[in-house]
Amino acid sequence: MRSYQRSVELYQETARHLAGGVSSNVRYASAPVPLFFERGEGARLYDVDGNVHIDYVLGNGPAILGHAPPRVVAAVAETLSLGQTYAGQHVRELELARALTALLPSAELVRFATSGTEAVQMAMRLARAFTGRDKIVKFEGHYHGWTDSVYVSCRPSPNEAGPADAPVPVAESPGMSPGAYDGLLIASWNDLGALRQMFETSGREIAAVMMEPMMVNGGAILPQPGYLLGVQDLCTRHGALFVCDEVITGFRLGLGGAQGRFGVRPDLSIFAKAVAGGFPLAVVAGRRDVMETLQTGGVMHGGTYNGNVQSMAAAITVLEILSADGGAVYAAMETRGTRLMEGLSKLANKHRIEMVVQGVPTIFQAMFTKVGPRNYRETTLVNRDRALAFSRELQAQGVRVNQRCSFFLSTEHDDGIIDETLTAADRAMAALASTGVA
Ligand SMILES: Cc1ncc(COP(=O)(O)O)c(C=O)c1O
Fold it and tell me: Alpha-carbon distance 101 to 109, whole Å?
């Protein structure tokens, strides 16, 4: 039995000083309390009670090269004595912007921000300013950060969310200003007919359609074949911008992100997480004429820490590693991730557990359901209690996933780690089956 005694004590003490004992509400979900870690190295995390975790949370996505990747650490360390943020330009910004515009066909220009949340705000403002329209189509179940203007209908209760084909906006937090999200139109994702209809009725008002191009928050769901291209086409025909929020999918679904994998070219994209391997960086990338409105159209975007020296140094090195040999690391991650996905499915069969493993090899989810969901409403049919129970059993076996049983892969999840994970999952499923929760 693993003990979490020191984490419990530290959490109790922390909660006396730090509101809720955490720095992000997402971290409450951990059990028995939000755990305290001493360090991370490669695919593993080490907690204060001496427990070792094979980590598939990876900081909720950023650690694509594992924890503390030596080359990135060295590149950042080299810059520490140069200062952190100048309120002025430095040459690493040029270097990174050049690398990004070379790697991403849709990135004619980029702008740096610090978190995904604020980069989304910039993209929304740009879209409204460029088109002179107000409405932004946002899909149920998709998460674009926690601000009032967009923290809407991320996980609405079906009782509040209106009909599946005509969802209504549902604020996700107390304290949100109702006026702040008036500009959103809520739609069901993966349904081109519904979006077409929306354009027919409100097309002249729609500034942008914004989405996670693979729905990761809430469900590791792939776009239906042709869906993304269909959305892109609808946007073009109606003079709206197609905005891909690649905060999670960027540099994870491949060097070109979801847009590269599925063959679309958004007008604007947002990248964060994996791009700097764990250092705070977000990027808005897109069409030159749209991005230029930051200068020529007076569209405001600021941020004290934007372009800070360490995040630039980290991202330059991360991109060097990810793009070496034409992105060879992705082929290796895809092979290992596929083995893990297939291995988990086989184990579920062995233990007679109803489970679907859905997603792509670098980000997937084990879902307790007969048929994998295709949109948010269908995710509400997935058994979340079983997912929670499985995540707890995995933790007891030394494997860390989130409470929805999502798996993020890094380059450091080698074959040995995959074998260890499958052994742990075998035991976790046996425990799950024996408790009857499965
Ligand atoms: C798709 C997506 N967009 C935006 C965000 C917000 O990014 P951040 O947490 O860096 O503010 C997230 C965070 O998980 C995300 O997954």
Answer: 7
- Please report the atom of ligand 1 found closest to the CA of residue 280: 10
User: What is the Cα–Cα distance from 189 to 214, expressed in whole angstroms?
Assistant: 10
Contact, 172 vs 152, CB < 8 A?
yes
Name the residue at shortest CA distance from atom 7 of ligand 1.
Answer: 116
Helices (H), 132-272: 192-202, 227-238, 257-262
List, for residues 378-414, the tens digit of each pLDDT value. Answer: 999 999 999 999 999 999 999 999 999 999 999 999 9
Cα-based distances in Å from 338 to 55, 63, 331, 332: 17, 19, 11, 10
Nearby residues of 378 by Cβ (< 8 Å), 6 or more positions away: none
**Whole-structure pTM value:** 0.97
Q: Mark whether 143 is an active-site residue.
A: yes
Find the Cα–Cα–Cα–Cα dihedral 60, 379, 170, 129, rounded to 10°.
60
The rounded distance, in Å, linking the Cα atoms of 46 and 52 is 5
Cβ–ligand 1 contact at 151 (below 6 Å)? no
